[in-house]
Amino acid sequence: MNKATLLELLASVERGDLTPQAASERLANLPYEDLGHARIDHHRSLRTGLPEVIYSAGKSPSQVAEIFTRMAAAGSDVLATRADQPTAEAVLIAVPAAVHHPQARAITLKQTQTDPRGHIAVVCAGTSDLPIAEEAAVTAGLFNTRVTRLYDVGVAGIHRLLAVREELATANAVIVCAGMEGALPSVVGGLVGVPVIAVPTSVGYGASFNGAAALLGMLNSCSPNVTVVNIDNGFGAAYTATLIARAADQ
């Protein structure tokens, strides 16, 4: 439940379309619903403006499907991240309206209809970074943010990045996903006047240490508008970028 649905529920009671008892039953699961293996935070949208999200890794397909179903029944937009194929199949059987995004390893269900707020550019250095970039783009899109994808514009061919500079300049925040030495966020940071959220990816040869080299490079960025999330954390970057873009769009 979010602020809009709560206000509509109260308005229905005021109009007489819904009895106080029925409204009370709908509110019974606030602030959370206990499934035994999970406690779903239906109240989160009211507190933060963004809904609870399911992290699928480590959960069984049936557990994810049950959580997804209960969140869908509450009327919120639903996102499951790091979902493998068996998990996606279980969710789609339970909630046929859900959408599986294989490259992003995400499952979404869009139920609210609101105008986009803010604009995020999602940039990645190379095609190998696409799974993380797509996780960020899908997440921000579900959260009603306008997303521009600018992919395969790494520093090895910097003219590709300069060719999309005008598109970068229109964003309220920029997410930059890169592996190897992780240089791209610093370059982007020098081109834009908005926050840049750097996402180190676990892409590269042995000395990249599964993204640790990119992480350290980004943490040591000389561009002061660059901040960094954890390795491969496209979701976390999108969540923060969404809040920045919303604040800028007010």
Average pLDDT, all residues: 88
Shape: globular
Subunit arrangement of the protein: single chain
Under the CATH scheme, which class of the largest domain? Alpha Beta
Number of helices: 11
Instruction: State the distance separating the first and last CA atoms.
Output: 22 Å
- The low-confidence runs, each spanning 5 or more residues with pLDDT under 50, are none
**Under CATH, the topology of the largest domain is which?**
Rossmann fold
Beta-sheet strand percentage? 15-25%
Please list the strands of the largest sheet in the order they lie side by side. 8-7-9-10-11
CATH architecture assignment of the largest domain: 3-Layer(aba) Sandwich
Features:
Rossmann fold; alpha/beta; 250 residues; 5-stranded parallel sheet; 11 helices; 11 strands
Structure, explained:
α4 packs parallel to α5 and α6 packs across α11 (about 235-250). The protein has 11 helices and 11 strands. It is an alpha/beta fold. α10 links the parallel β10 and β11 (about 225-230). The chain starts with a helix and ends with a helix. A 5-stranded parallel sheet has the order 8-7-9-10-11. Strands 3-4-6-5 form a 4-stranded mixed sheet, with helices on both faces. It has helices spanning about 5-15, 20-25, 45-50, 60-75, 85-95, 130-140, 160, 165-170, 185-190, 210-220, 235-250; strands at about 35, 40, 55, 80, 100, 105-110, 120-125, 145-150, 175-180, 195-200, 225-230. The chain is about 40% helix and about 15% strand. It is globular. It folds into 2 domains: about 5-110, no CATH class; about 120-250, Rossmann fold.
